[in-house]
User: Fold these one by one.
Assistant:
Number 1:
Amino acid sequence: MAVIRDVIPAFELFQPTSVDDALSLQSRHGAKAWVLAGGLDSFDWFKDRIKRPEVVIDLSQVRELRGVRAAGEGLEIGAMTTLTEVVRHPMVREKFSILPTAAEAAASPQIRNQGTIGGNVSQDARCWYYRGGWPCYRAGGNICYADTPTGLNREHAILDADRCVAVNPSDTAPALIALDAKMVVRTPKGEQVVDAENYFIGPATDITRMTILKPGDLLTSIRIPSTWAGAQFYFEKIRDRAVWDFPLVNVASAMVLSGNTIQRIRLAVNGVAAHPVRLTAVEAAVTGKPRNEETAEMAGQLAIQGAEPLQYNGFKVPLLRNLVKRAIRGAAA
Amino acid sequence: MNLIQWATSPWGQQVPIHISWTLLWVAAISALAFLIVHALYVSIWARPAHAQASAGASAMIADKIPERVPRHNLSARLFHAIMALSMLALLFTAFLPKVGVQFPWVTYHWIAGIVLSISVLYHIFDVFFYQDFWSIWPDKIDIEDAQSRVKRALGQSAPEPRKFAKYPLENKLYHLAVMLAGLSAICTGLFMMKRVHTPIFTRNPYLFSDMTWGWMYVLHGLAGVGFVALVTVHIYMAVRPEKFFITKSMFLGWMSREKYLEHYDPRRWPVTGQPPPAGAVAGDAESKKAPA
């Protein structure tokens, strides 16, 4: 098991002041470079001496990556914008209140002051076998220690597991999917704009990555279109410790009603798979239905179709079902 | 360069986890180099491989040889097609992600592996009971003729090599390599299915020790990159003009009498139902040039 040490291994530190410089450094150093945002994921890796990058590219001095800007009727949030800024920004609170709610739930105030929205959506899995430096699939090995007869997997996946059963721990990710956000990624080939739900990848596609970002790529901003501005939002996070913790399961929904009928809805959950899961089948099933207990019950049952619990995380199945039910019913119900 | 990637197991043991994926490029580049060298050799330096049948003997034999000489029956051709498709599926699903094409490959990979395994089982059954089992194994004549061909290629005196049996020595050695790599990949692959969720096996990642699993992954990987080279060379040989009549026979099931008499020894590969008279052909040849 890894032991946290006081001194992290030496690396060469670069602090670029522009995105172009950051990309140039990434291009020059390739896979040897580690991109540092708020550091809350990175420094754990470094202190445990499990990740030993030769080069660290600290984005904290890149001003163009910070801040919330109006973009048409929507918003553009720089990837280095802190969670606190997201939580407090009046435009975000006014139009897309689900995002501040999710960002606030992500961590303690101190962590929110340091952690960035780009880092929150791009953070690595928190499976302790993986974080402990064991040679599991995600670390390039050939076994998932959490998915063994004796594996401790209370926090692990119940959906879409493919060899690795780690989950994505982001709270803002399902909120961004519910808002139909677009992730703006700069690659060596140019700018790429990706739907939030396609930004995340599961182990079936690449077992060593959580997002589409490859060495040399950089998430620069997140665009939130006006499509869901002012919709009825629901976010709920279940965690072991209320003060701050990673989600056992969280749910985010954006819903537009016509009277009591669900006109359109986007619904996503996290903590149940290696990527946030948009529940498109549930969305399709409840669209056009009245917002009531019956619809909520049906949505909850549909959400858990295909769930495969491990030894110790069977509780996540009813938890997911109930959270989806509550998201459909809404806070007022 | 480390040919094998090692890791420290939770018990502090150094265990192999898989091959270095650099070997994929080594295999691909080696195959490409072979293609280039072979193409140059054939076009510039190749000497006559063996003597050809004399006109008289050919005429005598030709009377007994049908226009279309049956070479691969439908069963063998179907096996080859299924095996080829599953092998290509296995290679693409295994190695496209390694070169940056990301997709959910595992399910496709094990399904293709199951298809390959069943087709190989069928092939083994077929050759044991319905085909000429020994026709694909190198024999004494193959070795003697290979020695003669090498000596002649080096300018030394040696007896003229005879014409081929149904399969030339190169074919036989290729089959041997494919068989070894294939059985390695299939056996390790079937065990590796115990590590992933499939409807076929109950998952048991602790079936073997980390060390045994590690070597299994290494062997599977070596067989896989070996197949990159083997399949590349196979496709190259299949499209070479002077070999194309063999490729055609894999699709049509037969080759022409002319090609049969030109390249094969009817005593070593008697056409079914048309056995030639003993001593009628090989050795009493009129030489024609054919590449090695």
Number 2:
Amino acid sequence: MKSVQVESYLRFALGLIATAIYLIPLFWMVSTSLKPQTEIFQTPPSLIPTHPQIDSYRSALGLPTNRPELYITGALYFKNSLIIASFTTILTLLLAIPAAYGLSRFDFRGKTGYMLFLLVAQMLPSVLLVIPLFVLFKNLGLYNTHAGVILADTALALPLAIIILRTSFIQIPSVLEEAAWIDGGTRLQVLWYIILPLIRSGLVAVGAFSFLAAWGEFVFALSFLGKPELQPISIGIFQFIGMYKTQWDTMMAFSTLVAIPAVVAFLFLQRQFIGGMTSGSVK
Amino acid sequence: MTIQSVMNNLSKGRTFLFSDKLTPYFYILPSVLFLGVILGFPILFSVIISFQKYDLATLVSKQAQFIGLQNYFAVLNQPAFSIALSHSLKFTFFSIFFQFTIGLGLALLFSKAFPMSNIMRGLLLSGWQIPSVVTGTLFLFLFNLDYGLINFLLTSLHIITEPIGWIVQADTALSAVIIANIWLGIPFNVIMLSAGITGLPEDVYEAATMDGANGWQKLIYITIPLLKPTILAVLMLGFIYTLRVFDVIWIITKGGPGSATEVLPTFAYRLSFIHFNFGQSAAVAVITLLILFSGAVLYLRAITSEEVL
Amino acid sequence: MKTNLRNLTMLLLATIFIVAGCAPTVTTQPAEQPTAVAATEVPATEAPAAALPVEMWTYYGDTGPAAACVKTAAEDFNVAQSKYVLNIRNLAFTDFNQQVTTAIAAEATPDLMIVDNPDNARYAAAGALADLTDKVKTWGQADKFLPGPWNSTLWEGKNYGIPLGSNTVVLWINTDLAKAAGLDVNNPPKTWDEFETWAGKMTDKAKGVYGTALLAKKDETGTFLFLPWILQNGGDLQHLDSPESIAALAFWTKLVEEGYAPKSAVTDGFAEIYTQFTSGKAGMMISGTWNVNSIPKDAPDLKWMVAPLPYTKQAASSLGGENWAMFAASKQQDGAWEFLKFVTDPAYGTKLTDCMGYIPSRTDVLEQVAAKSANDPTMLVFLKQMESAAARGPLPNWSDASAIVQQAMQEALSGQKTPEQAMQDAAVAMKSVLGK
């Protein structure tokens, strides 16, 4: 119908404007990465670099340039970030699924207390948690291991994961489970084979949240990882910030390189956890 | 734990022989242990040292002296504390207000498919994928008085005549970091609210359309009430996450100029790592916790009255 | 449906394993890294025993000459002897305190660190540093060091550090811009008034050029830059509310208000003013001696000169520079000490300080520099300015005093308070800090 088309185009226009405004910082990041240092601070600012250079990207990738002072190990940082973020995601899911399930299906003493604890657990900024956690991990022999950072990042992501998954579980009516039990499945079997696939969008959302949280986390990574060969990308960025001098363009180039796979991955993933769009539903 | 209930359990194929009373605890046990150790311990540590004289020398000697509420009094008496508190509340309120309304608007916008809507929504989530150091630095550039893109765009579009000081002026600095934080918070709000919206039942809307309701009425009388659990969750979590924001503010202004953007987390950081007074810093952390705690209690009351489960 | 989730998980796990397997495990960094690996895992083929690792942290970040210079010093040390091998970790300046404090708490400190000279006393007073007094006595070289830097290593009469080198801030002038503004580059500004005139003439609003870059950032570097101006006018830290002290802040505020210096001064650090100066956006900058080696590389076409800081009543600048400090918990104190002796020895001479653009802290090494630079106008200016470089502290709670100065500076420059009000409030706050 025509009014549906008009509405569609209106939405498109609004969406375009909103997205364009939102992307300004990212646009600036890419633009800065291509500008020579002198142009970065030019007044008035140039939107498109007038003298684009890709030295910054070469530097960020560890290719030879005439900027000898940087020690880049881009692939290594990427690998470390991937390890930390992936294991954090897996551990978070492993711990969150049973917890969320328990909170959604049962009523028990201490339930409110536990939920309160979940909220309280997220209230302290990481910087203030560092010292006690460092002491704890050092005593457990986890200093200079990825495991320490993974455990800390999981602890950061877990409360939110439980809260989200709990809501997902609640939306699955228990009659579904009960029917499956009558058919002879154990609670755990039913959970794994039937319920989990139904809350796929929640699982993907939690996976994405946790992955990103660990990907960008740097306070714990900085404190718990002394050896350069263990450090993730979030620490690598600091390489460009010197005491007397900062390589702005290379920093932006590095960030762009780091952001690209994440943005692309999200473009594909986001449909999963927002549950897809129902064309034609009137909301 | 009667024979009857055991027989019931077995016949339903449940593997646990214990009564239903203990089952939930098995499910939550792993996460309770995990969080209790890794997050509970630091919180406990902070609470304890907030009652002790804890500075750099204490850190070395590990011998702390109990001084009761002195840290709290010292902190509450500092004018810097009430400044930080009021900034924190302003920062949180305005951040959440705009993040939420913009997020809701966007979620509603994308609730119906239109050309390229998937790509656009994906791009709107990109704020998360950039390390906070970079985001901070980007906004530092964007807000610059002379070469910042924001002033350039605003003056070119004739929205303002004079470039705004943003982060170098005490009266606009807080607004600047709020804007940066809104930008960071939009992905979270869009995702949560979109997920909530897709879970809404269609038949209610169809009935409303048949009754002649327009879009605006549907929004106010149907969407928002039905979304209440999601909205409450988003607001509560937003409150917690925003009150603890540290990275972005620290990188852009370090709490300055002067104390114009000092918030509780930056104040606590300053006490810890510039003044090396860990006891007072812990006191600030505990005070922050108490504020958030009261919010959390209110939230839990609100949602448990809603749910039937 | 469920297969999608499974597939995603499989894909994720597969990616991890593939990347973990393929990507190189060890970085390719200059010499010292492979030596370290060899030393700790396999006994070195030449030496009979494995070299003992000594670890040092610096706050130079990984960018710029300072980081590269200390790494070279470490390499030279590792080559010169085979008993110890020195590894350096270059942390960012902004996180350094946090990292060190956390390490102290968890007893995971390195053996050595570089510490900003005013902070030496704080760590010493807290008991975190090793007492070097006996080692220094045996070494017998204490009297060769300049009093300013040496004093910063002392606490209650004992030694807790060895000066690495000093630096100070001077006035850097873009001679092309100065000449274009009709200024005589053979007569750089010597008083505040002249400085103001120069800044005014070199400011070109239309082109977005400021007369001078100014650093008023809210951290130690802000105090570092601003404190000399208080001293130059005859004020001091104990009397921040004296007319002389207030006038210094009023002068800076005027420069910003007139538009001769950018308003972004309150967020600008050394990196920002360096970029402003080298890209021609600022005709002058007040910055340190360390730029001398970077500018030719980053802006080879820039024509510049240095001049002593202008003053009203007395010449003054800040004494910058770092000290080497050893942690009390270090297990390699002998090895660490060997490095300290090596790098401050006249035989090693000026290699490190030249590389970093610092001034040596030892008189005998300084003489080498003076002799070499008889014809180097830049170095002569540096050396002259060093004579009036004032140390910050020594005060164990220096960072508290510094924070008060930063606060006043920021409040005035951002228009929150008048310079009078800002300094008066600062003086009140300072009483409780200095009174201790």
